[in-house]
């Protein structure tokens, strides 16, 4: 019976991309002269795992390229080659190439073979050059064996550890000429055969200029799980002019990862399922299993009421206890399930050390990146959608915020600027701060640009917060020149819109000459929202609690109108528009008189409004159901939920409501749930 090895591809790609992240982080740490000998070992182990896995799954081009990287890393690990800045930059670029090859393998696509060949040639050129290590001249030659005799006897449990002898033999074959003889004397009869046990042993003969260290490296994965005897065939001493002589890599070969049509379709299916995969800590799974067990017990207890013949009072008391347990268990189960989707924000932060490294070199700046709060957990969906906005904000800090070294020294600052990424929990939110100690936002310049563009009148008085919010207007930019990093006036408005779509908010604080801090507040999850239930006639709506400032009874003297068209309410020295919810959604209302009615004050992106409702029903957690999936998008509504009585309630999109009221758009059509 053959095994479809493609079922393991997704796990291989996930582990390989994690290995690349480890390589990149360790290489950047080496570039900062971090004295940690374990860093080069981390990089080597990651490359070795990728090479071994790609060889196992038949991605020979990936294995060949990684082998050259591994040879260079091995020399650095053994102290035969000095770790230089040029070597680190080349290895970083090689990691990017390797990532592209793996993505092509995952997507059943072609990769840039010319670029791969060019980078591989540079690696081989570096391998062939003088290592630069301070070593005695006698170390230019090393003992090289003409061949080895290897007796390999796996323990019966070896296959259960995930190791495959064939994979190790394939690695040995890349070092020289390999001959293998199998010993099947331990094979039992078919009735006693266990497919998970290893019964075979091998006598291997490896001919070629192979060192003992190269062989030990291959078998280190099964150390303790086998009996291994390695004896040399013949020993000679030869110059080590070609450090990678054992590598069976053809620099002239044009690699390809194009799969057969049926394999391509299978891998596309894997990719679709893999995009939504998530690794879960076993403790979270145990919690979930325990909660399900508690629910089963409670269900069993409630199921007994149909069989017990006792007084109604006794049954009623037991029923109340059972319902109380059910409520508690359901709440804990919900919390456990939500924690499964939570990932540390380090998944989003990990891309920035490389980004800062590359852009600081490109811009000629010296920048130190500090990160804190990486263990702060955030919903996987939110994490995926916040990545691009964070990249744009960090790029802006690099380009516009941090000054050039000469400018910083002239301003009395250290020549090395600092960008700090910080994350922490605050209430029901996750707060992400991006701060720098650069030049800060030029308040007067932004104000002048806004007045030139007609965004603010000459007589209008605006606060610092309102001025800084102008940078999020579409097309607004104060950059004197356009670069490929920033300055086109596109992006900041998209950043705010993307964060608002996640139910979050963004705030900018800045001080000229001292730096800028951007504060992003996001909900922990997009699946559940804390809401205030409001009633308009027989319709129920949910207003997210995070968007509510307060609720109040309308006082007549506080009301007004603008040109007889828009109704406003005086709220703490500000005049805010009044949104009549029944008009906006075309439903009935108990009363159309504002005075004495209820007003829910809401806020989004610094804009406030008052929502006129008939009654406040209470607060509760609601599960969000997508309208796009089950109905169609409705402006002003972010989703829907099913209430305890089985009716459907619309969840209001606060930003959309304010936008609708200000733009005077035709009212959206909403089908009532009651």
Helix-strand category:
alpha+beta
Total of DSSP H or I helical runs spanning 4+ residues: 20
Mean pLDDT: 78
Radius of gyration: 33 Å
CATH homologous superfamily grouping of the largest domain: Histidine kinase-like ATPase, C-terminal domain
Shape: flat
CATH topology name of the largest domain? Heat Shock Protein 90
Terminal Cα span = 58 Å
Largest β sheet strand count, sense and barrel closure: 6 strands, mixed
The CATH first-level class of the largest domain comes to: Alpha Beta
Number of domains: 5
Low-confidence stretches: 132-145, 235-275
Number of strands: 22
What does this structure look like?
By secondary structure, the protein is an alpha+beta fold. The protein is 40% helix and 24% strand. The chain is built from 20 helices and 22 strands. α2 (38-56) runs antiparallel to α3, α9 (282-303) packs antiparallel against α10 and α13 (380-401) packs antiparallel against α17. The protein is flat and about 105 Å long. Residues 132-145 and 235-275 have low confidence and may be disordered.
């Amino acid at each position: 019976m053959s095994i479809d090895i493609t079922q393991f591809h997704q796990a291989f790609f996930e582990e390989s991309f994690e290995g690349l992240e480890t390589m990149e982080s360790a290489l950047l740490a080496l570039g900062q002269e971090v004295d940690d000998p374990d860093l080069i070992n981390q990089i080597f182990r990651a490359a070795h795992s990728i090479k071994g896995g790609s060889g196992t799954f038949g991605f020979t081009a990936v294995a060949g390229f990684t082998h050259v990287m591994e040879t260079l890393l091995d020399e650095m690990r053994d102290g035969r080659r000095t770790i230089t800045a040029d070597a680190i930059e080349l290895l970083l670029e090689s990691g990017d190439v390797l990532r592209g090859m793996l993505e092509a393998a995952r997507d059943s696509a072609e990769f840039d073979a010319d670029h791969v060949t060019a980078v591989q040639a540079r690696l081989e050129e570096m391998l062939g050059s003088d290592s630069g290590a301070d070593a005695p001249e006698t170390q230019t030659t090393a003992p090289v064996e003409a061949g080895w005799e290897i007796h390999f006897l796996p323990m019966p449990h070896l296959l259960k550890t995930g190791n495959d002898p064939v994979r190790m033999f394939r690695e040995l074959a890349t070092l020289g000429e390999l001959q293998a003889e199998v010993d099947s004397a331990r094979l039992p009869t078919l009735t006693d055969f266990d497919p998970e046990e290893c019964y075979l042993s091998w006598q291997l003969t490896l001919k070629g200029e192979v060192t003992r260290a190269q062989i030990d490296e291959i078998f280190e994965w099964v150390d303790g799980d086998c009996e291994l005897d390695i004896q040399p065939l013949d020993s000679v001493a030869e110059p080590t002019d070609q450090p990678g002589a054992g590598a069976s890599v053809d620099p002239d070969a044009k690699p390809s990862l194009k799969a057969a049509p049926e394999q391509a379709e299978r891998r596309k299916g894997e990719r679709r399922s893999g995009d939504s995969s998530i690794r879960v800590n076993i403790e979270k799974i145990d919690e979930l299993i325990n909660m399900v067990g508690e629910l089963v017990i409670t269900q069993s207890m409630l199921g007994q009421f149909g069989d017990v013949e006792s007084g109604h009072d006794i049954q009623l008391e037991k029923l109340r206890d059972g319902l109380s347990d059910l409520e508690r268990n359901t709440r804990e189960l919900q919390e456990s399930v939500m924690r499964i989707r939570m990932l540390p924000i380090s998944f989003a932060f990990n891309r920035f050390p490389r980004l800062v490294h590359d852009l600081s070199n490109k811009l000629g700046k010296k920048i130190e990146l500090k990160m804190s709060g990486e263990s702060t957990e955030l919903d996987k969906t939110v994490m995926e959608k916040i990545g691009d906005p964070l990249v744009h904000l960090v790029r802006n800090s690099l380009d516009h915020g941090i000054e050039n070294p000469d400018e910083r020294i002239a301003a009395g600052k250290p020549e090395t600027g600092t960008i700090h990424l910080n994350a922490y929990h605050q209430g029901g939110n996750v707060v992400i701060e991006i701060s720098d100690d650069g030049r800060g936002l030029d308040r007067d310049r932004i104000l002048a640009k806004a007045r030139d563009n007609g965004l603010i009148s000459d007589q209008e008085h605006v606060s610092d917060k309102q001025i800084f919010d102008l940078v999020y207007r579409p097309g607004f930019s104060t950059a004197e020149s356009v670069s490929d990093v920033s300055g086109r006036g596109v992006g900041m408005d998209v950043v705010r819109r993307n964060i608002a779509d996640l139910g979050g908010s963004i705030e900018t604080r800045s001080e000229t000459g001292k730096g800028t801090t951007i504060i992003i507040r996001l909900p922990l999850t997009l699946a559940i929202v804390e809401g205030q239930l409001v009633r308009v006639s027989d319709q129920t709506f949910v207003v997210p609690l995070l968007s509510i400032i307060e609720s109040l009874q309308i006082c007549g003297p506080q009301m007004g109108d603008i040109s007889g068209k828009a109704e406003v309410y005086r709220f703490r020295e500000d005049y805010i528009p009044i949104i009549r919810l029944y008009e906006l959604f075309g439903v009935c209302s108990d009363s159309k008189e504002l005075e004495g009615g209820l007003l829910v004050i809401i806020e989004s992106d610094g804009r406030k409004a008052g929502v006129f409702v008939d009654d406040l029903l209470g607060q509760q957690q609601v599960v969000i159901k997508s309208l796009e999936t089950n109905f169609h998008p409705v402006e002003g509504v972010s989703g829907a939920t099913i209430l305890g009585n089985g009716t459907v309630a619309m969840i209001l999109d606060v930003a959309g409501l304010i936008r609708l009221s200000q733009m005077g758009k035709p009212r959206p059509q909403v089908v009532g749930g009651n």
